[in-house]
Amino acid sequence: MQFAQQFMKSMIVVVLLLPSLARAQAPTAPDMRVRCANLIYGNGKSSVCFSSEFLSQVNRESNIQTDPELYPVKLESPDLYQFPFCVMTGEGGFQLTELQRDSLRNYLTHGGFIIASAGCSNRDWAASFRSELSRVFPDVMLTQLDISHPIFHTLYDIPNLDLGKSRGQAHLEGLELDGKIVLVFSSDGLNDSGKVSDDCCCCGGNEVKNARLVNCNLLTYTLTH
After folding, report:
1. Three-class DSSP category at 122
2. What is the residue range of 129's domain?
3. Which of 9, 22, 26, 151 has its CA 20 to 30 A from that of 200?
């Protein structure tokens, strides 16, 4: 009889605690927002002034849910595969390590996408990037993308790529693997520095005027093609 009474008291305590236990053990809903990386490469080189505003704009203007931050990630890090979209940009010449070249190759051949842009149209950076990419993919060439390509007509229709401080039109080049564009390169800046803080090292440099719209389209293209 005493055992039965003690058992009933224990059951009452468990029932009273059930709501609290359920709340404590309920799994947290996964964060389904798209996260984008700002690559660190070479000997610690990275962008310090590539605006992340395009991420917020995609979030506002489409059904794609994005994290508004660009996360610094080393090119050789396994963490790279947590990001379906990466920005690789900067100024001045550079060289990748063999480990970084291998990681770049693996990332792009396994579903990753990179937008590579010479910060403020820096020619030394553009030359270094072309050289490194030819070492990573010696049998695949960058090809210029015609303005009719879907990349220019995903979230926004982009009829031209005007430059901010020089005449003429910018252009984008794509790297295609197995029928899919996995990397887009611009020798002209896509940094959208108008939305970067005043202490940005390259604000005021030459860049594509509608860079933010281009970046929005590139992210949208990556996730829908």
Report:
1. coil
2. 32-224
3. 151
Residue 6 included in any domain: no
- Please give the full DSSP string across 3-54, using - where no structure is assigned: HHHHHHHHHHHHHHHHHHHHHHHSPPPP---EEEEEEEBTTTB--S----HH
Cα–Cα distance, 81 to 129 (Å, whole number): 21
Write out the two tokens for 1: 């009889």
Tokens read off for 119: 């910060």
> What one-character-per-residue DSSP string does 96-117 give?
--HHHHHHHHHHHHTT-EEEEE
Longest Cα–Cα distance of the chain, Å, equals: 95
Reading the chain (225 residues) residue by residue, the pLDDT tens digits are: 443 344 344 433 333 333 443 444 455 555 789 999 999 999 999 987 889 999 999 999 999 999 999 999 999 999 999 999 999 999 999 999 999 999 999 999 999 999 999 988 899 999 999 999 999 999 999 999 999 999 999 999 999 998 877 777 899 999 999 999 999 999 999 988 665 444 454 555 678 999 999 999 999 999 998
Q: How many folded domains does the chain comprise? A: 1
Residue 212, phi then psi, degrees to nearest 5: -65, -40
Whether 128 is in a domain gets the answer yes
Say which CATH number the domain at 109 has.
Answer: 3.40.50.12140
pTM above 0.85, yes or no: no
**Cα gap 180→116, rounded to integer Å:** 16
With respect to residue 25, please indicate whether it lies within any of the assigned structural domains.
no
